[in-house]
Design brief:
The protein is of the alpha+beta class. It has three helices and six strands, in the order E-H-E-E-H-E-H-E-E. Helix 2 packs across helix 3. The longest helix is centred in the middle third of the chain and has 18 residues. GO terms for molecular function: deaminase activity.
């Protein structure tokens, strides 16, 4: 078996090591990013829904950048939302700050009852640029 080609964002490897998972794995020209929440550097939740969503995107973008990507390289998005019936519109308004222009990535939204103290999580698959190290 080949060793996993793990991507760590700057300054957060200890948090991922503590929680025993990889933030992202490069494989066959793609980047598979673990679900990102609005966690502060110590792992605690950002306060407020919109701030939490912005922080989740910031955490996601740090991983994409570490892999030589941007959100423009994202081809598939899955979001998990606690109580989407009351939170979707507020979350979707923040998406516009990060989503970019058409053509958009695919999107799957899932309503959940629990996210370990968070209200929102975003998981993506990105196509690695041809110049990125595989």
């Amino acid at each position: 078996m080949t060793a996993r080609d793990v991507v760590f964002p700057a300054g957060r490897q200890a948090l991922y090591d503590q929680n025993r998972y990889s933030p992202a794995i490069r494989s066959n020209g793609f980047l598979f990013v673990s679900g990102q929440v609005g966690s502060l550097p110590d792992g605690s939740p950002e306060t407020g829904l919109e701030a939490q969503v912005r922080r989740a995107f910031a955490n996601l973008n740090a991983i994409l950048e570490a892999a030589g990507c941007t959100f423009k390289d994202v081809v598939d998005v899955t979001v998990f939302i606690v109580d989407p019936a009351t939170r979707f519109e507020r979350i979707w308004n923040v998406f516009g700050e990060n989503w970019g222009e058409a053509p958009y990535p695919t999107l799957t939204g899932v309503g959940v009852t629990w996210l370990y103290g968070f209200d929102f999580e975003i998981k993506v698959i990105a196509k690695l640029p041809d110049t990125a190290v595989n």
